[in-house]
Amino acid sequence: MPDPSAVRRLAVAAVLLLGVSACGGPTHKDDAFIDAGVTGLLDIELTECFSDPEYSEFAGEDVVLYVPCPDGADNQSYLFVHAPDAPWDREAVAELGWDECGKGFEQQWTSQDASGLDYYPILPTAETWADGDRAIMCAVYDPDGPLEDSVLPLADGVSQ
Question: Whole-model pTM?
Fold first, then answer.
């Protein structure tokens, strides 16, 4: 039989861990965080910044809004990947998205540790795929909070 004081310490540690994770800390976004079915997402173009999905009373559903990068946004698009025509296979599309978005991220920012940024793919849905949508949007974000401006690195020889 386990030591009751050890069980109590484990229970307290678990409660504290849950409390810390519920109080904030770094955000992690994955390929299920948002998809092409969210209203407003298909209006976001390459390099544009946008909000996380939020419920809109007016629309009666989650929406994503364009946000000028200098105004502080939750995400920025940095690459679009075109999936090949094939029957809908969410797992295969997600794998393609992670692979290609990861390559694009490493080309622009080298690493998550060096940049402090993270990325995730935004996938078509079965419905948008049936309508011909093959675009996977790659989005970059700061796990610690909103972006303060565009985070895209400037190309050599380009000034602001």
Answer: 0.80
